[in-house]
Design a protein that fits this description.
This protein has about 220 residues and is α/β, with parallel strands linked by helices. The chain contains eight helices and eight strands; from the N terminus they run αβαβαββαβαβαβαβα.
């Protein structure tokens, strides 16, 4: 069933959109079913789970870390992840930069914008992101690749679309303001319930779990 669900999602993707199969809390066996069906990019949001799964999966899997990352867990994520989508504070950004510089590594990251209405969500404000990118050359251990955001958890499509348009507009303005940041071309918005809307609003990465793997048990 996972392979069938995966193909259903893939068939809806727009050209140039990367599908991140969100495999958190799902078994390696389930992930391998998606892998055998052609999926190569997987997203995890818990450091311990990521570090356990990596050696059990084929070496050509591309790992995105998509959850809140505590600075004391960097060693369980940064050696394995190709991209950290959820850099949500200056404190974390500085820690990732320092960790990578000390090891001669450059990590691809997305800056997470506080997009939805929930106060519990992390993320930068618009002005904070502008400030970070104005000082991008100070960070030698990271590569700024774009923005990430999560819409308010609501069934109101107009609210979701408006939030996606807001982050897309910021993304476009930042790309225009910083042509020197050649890697800044990814917009990661949209999950199982709203990824089609996200693609209509310019998303280049969608994070889909439930629509592929089903509900977590």
């Amino acid at each position: 069933m996972i392979a069938e669900h995966l193909q259903d999602v893939v068939s809806t993707l727009r050209e140039g959109v990367t599908l991140v199969a969100v495999s958190k809390f799902h078994s390696v066996e389930e992930m391998m079913e998606a892998y055998r069906a052609g999926q190569r990019v997987f997203g995890e949001n818990r450091p311990q789970e990521l570090s356990v799964k990596v050696p059990q999966m084929p070496s050509d899997v591309v790992w995105h870390f998509i959850g809140h990352l505590q600075t004391n867990k960097l060693g369980k994520v940064l050696p394995y992840a190709s991209m950290v989508e959820s850099v949500d504070s200056l404190h974390l950004l500085s820690a990732v930069d320092t960790w990578c510089r000390a090891r001669g590594k450059v990590m691809d990251i997305l800056l997470e914008l506080h997009l939805g209405a929930e106060e519990t969500k992390g993320g930068f404000s618009d002005s904070e992101i502008v400030g970070v990118l104005d000082r991008a050359s100070d960070y030698l251990g990271v590569r700024f690749c774009g923005l990430m955001g999560m819409a308010t958890n609501t069934s109101d499509e107009q609210v979701v679309r408006a939030e996606f348009r807001r982050i897309a507009a910021l993304f476009a303005s930042l790309r225009e303001a910083h042509p020197e940041l050649s890697a800044f071309r990814e917009l990661s918005i949209g999950m199982s319930g709203d990824y089609r809307i996200a693609m209509e609003e310019g998303s280049t990465i969608v994070r889909v779990g439930t629509a592929i793997f089903g509900e977590r048990l």
